[in-house]
Design brief:
By secondary structure, the protein is an alpha+beta fold. Strand 4 and strand 5 form a beta hairpin. The longest helix has 50 residues. The relative contact order is 0.07.
């Protein structure tokens, strides 16, 4: 990498060391002059009537002082260059790692050895940044691949249906149109979910005071018919719970949680409980449902994009596009909150959202 002409950090440190040593030597010689030579008489009898006098001492002392200053300057330059090189050696490793990261290699780590100093802290921070960046890039690559696959599926189905209609003009057009409409609706839902996920990740929304209890009631009212069709009892409890954020995004968050709890439930006779509570300076939202038992190792993967239960395929018409909990997680992060998913021992899932509370 080309940089503007100028002194390197090593050369600057070298000159600083040499300059400091030269100044210290000059001060020492000045002290010798002031407190020693100034008291030597400047006459032919010298000190206590014994030679040498000040003139002889100055002419003897001056060449030796000049040689000493020259030695100090050379010693300062050589020693400063060596010391500066050793001090700046860790920066060389950090620079090499940064250049490798700039070229796209995020798997390299410095792993600096030695005692814990400022360079070691910088190295550890850089390694941590590379680890997070590598994880984020890998997540984005998986998301892009999954999104491409999910978007390609409805388009491929539409293309196949149109080919069938073109080759078989006698086919029932009503059924074909209804099928195309369902496929198109799924593609639209997926596109809107991707846009919402991108918007919540950016966090560019206007914040306002929102009551989570009212949001929960609105979400439950919207999904009441779906719960009734599936024989699910849907209850909303709790009192006023205020937080600051986007009412639209928070409504989508609660709706996704409730819909997920209704869809992934028992075939009949299941329950979904939505509870809101203000706890100190934290606003809590809990969504608890019955259902089959979930393996503990599966639960952390549910917030990954396009993850649906134990597999990445649709199981019925209500399985969605696999972005429900991913959108919830993104919205919670955008509102400076936390999302906890805990499997219930009897089956089902307990989801707890913690958001900053407001008065």
């Amino acid at each position: 990498m080309h940089r503007r002409p100028g002194l390197s950090a090593r050369l600057k440190l070298t000159l600083s060391y040499a300059g400091f040593l030269a100044v210290a030597g000059a001060l020492l010689l000045a002290v010798v002059w002031m407190f020693l030579l100034r008291y030597v008489p400047d006459n032919s009898r010298g000190l206590l009537g014994i030679s040498p006098n000040r003139y002889l001492l100055v002419h003897t002392f001056a060449p030796a002082a000049a040689v000493a200053m020259l030695f100090l300057l050379v010693f300062g330059l050589v020693g400063g260059w060596i010391l500066a090189g050793r001090m700046l050696a860790p920066l060389t490793h950090i620079t090499a790692a940064a250049r490798m990261a700039g070229n796209g290699s995020l798997s390299h780590r410095i792993h600096m050895k030695g005692r814990q100093d400022e360079f070691r802290e910088l190295s550890d921070a850089f390694d941590s940044m590379l680890e997070q960046l590598e994880s984020h890039v890998a997540e984005q690559q998986r998301f892009a691949a999954n999104a491409s696959h999910e978007l390609r599926t409805p388009l491929a189905i539409s293309h196949a249906l149109l080919d069938v209609a073109r080759k078989d003009p006698t086919r029932d057009r009503g059924a074909l149109i209804e099928r195309l409409r369902a496929v198109n609706t799924r593609a639209i839902d997926l596109t809107e979910a991707l846009l919402l996920l991108s918007r919540s990740d950016r966090g560019n929304f206007v914040r306002e005071s929102v009551d989570l209890s009212l949001v929960a009631e609105e979400a439950a009212e919207t999904l009441f018919r779906l719960a009734e069709q599936r024989g699910i009892t849907l209850d909303v409890t709790g009192g006023a719970t205020r937080t600051s954020g986007s009412a639209e995004l928070l409504l989508r968050m609660v709706t996704n949680l409730v819909q997920n709890a209704v869809v992934h439930n028992l075939p009949g006779g299941g329950t979904v409980t939505v509870h809101t509570e203000a706890y100190g300076d934290t606003s809590l939202l809990r969504v608890e449902n019955t259902g089959r038992r979930l393996p503990p190792e599966l639960v952390p993967t549910l917030i990954e994009p396009f993850q649906r239960g134990t597999e990445r395929v649709r199981t019925d018409e209500h399985a969605g596009v696999g972005l429900g909990l991913s959108i919830v997680h993104s919205i919670v992060r955008a509102h400076d909150g936390t999302l906890d998913l805990v499997p219930r021992p009897a089956g089902g899932l307990l989801v707890t959202v913690r958001l900053p509370g407001t008065t």
